[in-house]
């Protein structure tokens, strides 16, 4: 592991030292300039909004050019950060795995091969790749056929042993289980789309030709692993109320509600129970299409023998490229795979505990005071994650010196940029303001939790690192308040002016169900 040097750690700690003062509403330099006083008054006014009455708010802003803390409120308070947790996971992954890291999925055979006959098992070994599509499994099957294998006398063995068999985070809530943002984590999985929502299937219900018949339900990718229980109805007219739900512990998806003749299809992304079996089903069907018959059954969870002979291989995109869908769309599955991959690579154990230990060591070496926080998963889905805003700012300041910083900075969502893989979860926020195409930051959302941490360039050209974490509010959304603060930071200048910095108008943004990132609402809400 590439340890951080002590002088750099000391510099980072000095940078955020004033952000660790407890309790004071605002604390900046000992002699704040008039501009800082105006900025403090502006942010204080935003945080005085009635939507935050009785809530907790932590805000820290540091000028990374000068090292000065421009604003601080409750910087050392441990708050639930939601998806801002991904800042820790993503930076640790880039440093410890490297921007060029790839996941490998391969196929190997045991036993003798003669005249198209493999007298043994065929092993499909997962390397944790969360970007594996049905088409990638088809390419693997084509490679097997090109190697001359036509009949496998043994079993198809799905090897997911790179990681442990704990599929769900220990603190995740049960009612999230069937929805794609809480997909099970396996070293062998399938994504149905190029958002790479691994461990999920897209279910679509289209109206039948006539009223009274059930809708036509299809799945992407087509598979024999999940079963549809279609209880819905096509009606002559009326509101569409189609709903999809997967039963706990099964791969039965129940479709209920109604859809009118001629209406557009309804679809949703549903998680799969045991993604390893899902991947094996997709691969087995692909083998058959390419003329390869497996005579035995499908077996899950057995390791590939050391003496098995390679037959086919697929390498993922490099980690630098994966950072884009991961951070832009706040993909929870990517965060958890990276956590387990860190554990596997650093300590030989593909578990959450080993991965979190690796993340903690990296961010601690970077100047984050890990004794003040608790990280329970890689994505932020757990409500037991507790991270003070000042520690986010310490990390944001430190990683500017990393060789991969530009790649990571570009992968963060960009405010107000309509391109989905540029703006990401910020694409509909702060449009038409000075913060648009300026703020690079990670969003976070759970019920009663909202966060925004990242960077903004102020009017003087200084790069500011900021963290806003809001907890325990009762209203539907407080994201507009985060946007107002970010806009004020983008407008900040130390140049002479006597005007009081006005509280920015709250920008319009699309409505997203409380507790969800906009990209977690399918079809895409941002």
Automatic annotation (TrEMBL):
Biological process per Gene Ontology, one example term: peptidoglycan metabolic process
Gene3D superfamilies documented for this protein: D-Ala-D-Ala carboxypeptidase C, peptidase S13, DD-peptidase/beta-lactamase superfamily
Alphabetical UniProt keywords: Carboxypeptidase, Hydrolase, Protease, Signal
Signal peptide: 1-29
Family annotation (InterPro entries): Beta-lactam/transpept-like (IPR012338), Peptidase_S13 (IPR000667)
GO molecular function, one term: serine-type carboxypeptidase activity
SUPFAM superfamilies according to UniProt: beta-lactamase/transpeptidase-like
Keyword Hydrolase: yes
Keyword Magnesium: no
Pfam families: Peptidase_S13 (PF02113)
Annotated family: Belongs to the peptidase S13 family.
Name listed for the protein in its UniProt record: D-alanyl-D-alanine carboxypeptidase/D-alanyl-D-alanine-endopeptidase (Penicillin-binding protein 4)
Organism whose genome encodes this protein: Micromonospora kangleipakensis
Organism lineage: Bacteria, Bacillati, Actinomycetota, Actinomycetes, Micromonosporales
């Amino acid at each position: 592991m590439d340890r951080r040097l002590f002088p750099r750690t000391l510099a980072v700690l000095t940078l955020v030292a004033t952000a660790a003062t407890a309790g004071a509403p605002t604390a900046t330099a000992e002699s704040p300039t008039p501009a800082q006083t105006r900025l403090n008054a502006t942010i204080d006014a935003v945080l005085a909004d009635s939507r935050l009455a009785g809530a907790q708010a932590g805000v820290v802003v540091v000028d990374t050019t000068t090292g000065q803390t421009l604003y601080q409120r409750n910087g050392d308070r441990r708050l639930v950060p939601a998806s801002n947790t991904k800042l820790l996971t993503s930076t640790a992954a880039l440093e410890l795995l490297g921007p060029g890291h790839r996941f490998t999925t391969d196929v190997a055979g045991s036993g003798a091969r003669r005249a198209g006959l493999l007298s043994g098992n065929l092993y499909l070994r997962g390397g944790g790749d969360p970007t594996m599509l049905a088409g990638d499994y088809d390419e693997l099957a084509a490679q097997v056929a090109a190697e001359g294998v036509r009949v496998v006398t043994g079993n198809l063995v799905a090897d997911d042993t790179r990681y442990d068999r704990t599929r769900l985070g220990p603190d995740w809530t049960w009612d999230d289980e069937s929805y794609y943002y809480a997909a099970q984590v396996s070293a062998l999985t399938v994504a149905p789309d190029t958002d790479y929502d691994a461990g999920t299937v897209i279910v679509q219900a289209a109206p039948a030709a006539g009223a009274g018949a059930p809708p036509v339900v299809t799945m992407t990718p087509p598979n024999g692993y999940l079963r549809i229980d279609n209880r819905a109805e096509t009606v002559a007219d009326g509101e569409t109320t189609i709903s999809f739900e997967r039963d706990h512990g099964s791969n039965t998806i129940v479709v209920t509600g109604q859809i009118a003749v001629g209406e557009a299809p309804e679809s949703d992304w549903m998680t799969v129970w045991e993604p390893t079996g899902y991947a094996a089903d997709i691969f087995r069907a692909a083998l058959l299409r390419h003329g390869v018959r497996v005579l035995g059954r499908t077996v899950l969870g057995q390791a590939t023998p050391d003496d098995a002979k390679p037959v086919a291989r697929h390498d993922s995109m490099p980690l630098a490229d994966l950072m884009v869908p991961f951070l832009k769309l706040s993909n929870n599955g990517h965060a958890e795979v990276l956590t387990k991959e860190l554990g596997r690579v650093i300590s030989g154990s593909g578990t959450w505990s080993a991965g979190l230990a690796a993340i903690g060591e990296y961010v601690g070496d970077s100047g984050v005071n890990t004794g003040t926080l608790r990280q329970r998963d890689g994505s932020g889905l757990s409500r037991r994650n507790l991270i003070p805003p000042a520690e986010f700012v310490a990390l944001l300041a430190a990683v500017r010196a990393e060789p991969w910083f530009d790649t990571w900075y570009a992968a963060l969502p960009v405010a107000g940029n309509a391109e989905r893989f540029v703006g990401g979860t910020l694409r509909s926020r702060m449009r038409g303001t000075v913060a648009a195409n300026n703020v690079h930051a990670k969003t976070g959302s759970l019920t009663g939790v909202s966060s925004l941490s990242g960077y903004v360039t102020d009017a003087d050209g200084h790069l500011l690192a900021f963290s806003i974490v809001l907890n325990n509010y009762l209203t539907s959304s407080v994201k507009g308040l985060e946007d107002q603060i970010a806009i004020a930071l983008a407008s900040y200048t130390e140049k002479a002016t006597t005007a009081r910095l006005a509280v920015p108008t709250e920008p319009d943004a699309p409505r997203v169900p409380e507790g969800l990132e906009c990209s977690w609402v399918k079809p895409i809400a941002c």
